[in-house]
Design goal:
By secondary structure, the protein is of the alpha/beta class. The protein has helices at about 15-20, 45-55, 65-75, 85-90, 95-105, 130-145, 150-155, 170-185; strands at about 5, 30-35, 60, 110-115, 115-120, 185-190, 195, 210, 225, 235-240, 240-245, 255-260, 265-270.
């Protein structure tokens, strides 16, 4: 049995199929965890979702900002972006089944492998959160999305404020901070105040900000975290950090990691992707 995780697919179904073939993925033996942004910007989000649904169990997913955007657009609580490629999915006769499946997926997962713990998120983890707290807070959002009140949740989900975590947050503000951290975070202050104005490389942070994973007091330091979301960051392999968004939809590659006997044993695997959007179209 092999454990894999892979970065943002964003509707690039052809690249997804090529990756499954390239890694020799066996649904009966292997587990593949996808790090969010399954849909949008690429040419065939429908095929990506249907493939994931068909492989459910062996393929596990977490939600990214584009997946949440799809749900919000489908409900009419969010206007489509001019760069969206969701019309075919939204007009599909099995649209509701796909949306219902998607909204029941978590925003974070944990995988136990070779005596170690792997935390998987789409974007980032606030410095005040431990791994266990991250999973608990992601569960609060999953419960809201899975409930009959999920349209109300999506209607209040968007916004940049509050931009920092507090245990005293409640209701929509609490859930918004959790969603923003797990699906949008790149840069923050040393105190964990989030910034959403920049998507540049980690080597050129805005003044007063640092990449979330470089905050010295981060409670998850030393715990392996895999994430996507940051295509300008690209592939990064540190002892406690894996960055796996290598710009598939922008004409880069779709990246995956195969873990060996332990989480420290890693093989980087990737397939090239046809360009579906020009860089800068965000």
């Amino acid at each position: 049995m092999a454990l894999y995780c892979a970065g943002d697919i964003q509707g690039c179904a052809q690249a997804f199929e090529q990756l499954l073939t390239h890694i020799g993925f066996s649904p009966s033996r292997d587990t593949l965890i996808l790090l969010g942004d399954l849909v949008n910007r690429g040419p065939d989000s429908t095929a990506v979702l249907r493939r994931c649904m068909a492989l459910e169990g062996s393929v596990q997913v977490i939600l990214g900002n584009h997946d949440l955007h799809l749900l919000a657009v489908a409900l009419g609580v969010r206007a489509p972006s001019r760069h969206d490629t969701l019309n075919e999915l939204l007009a599909h006769p099995h649209r509701q089944a796909m949306l219902d499946w998607l909204r029941r997926q978590p925003l974070a997962r944990q995988a136990l492998h070779g005596g170690g713990e792997l935390l998987l998120v789409h974007a980032g983890v606030l410095p005040q959160w431990s791994g266990a707290q991250t999973l608990h807070l992601a569960g609060e959002v999953q419960a809201a999305l899975s409930s009959t009140q999920w349209p109300d949740f999506l209607g209040q989900m968007y916004g940049d404020l509050p931009n920092a975590w507090s245990e005293h947050l409640q209701g929509a503000n609490r859930l918004r901070v959790i969603v923003n951290a797990l699906t949008r975070l790149r840069f923050c202050s040393s105190a964990g105040e989030m910034d959403f104005s920049s998507s540049e490389s980690a080597s050129a942070p805005p003044a007063g900000l640092i990449p979330w994973f470089d905050v010295p007091t981060r409670l998850t330091r030393g715990q392996l975290i895999a994430f996507g979301h940051w295509s300008t960051l690209g592939w990064m392999n540190r002892p406690d950090l894996l960055s796996l968004d290598t710009g598939c939809v922008w004409g880069g590659s779709l990246s995956a990691v195969r873990f060996g006997a332990t989480l420290a044993e890693r093989e980087h695997l990737q397939v090239p992707c046809p360009q579906a959007q020009r860089p800068g179209q965000r």
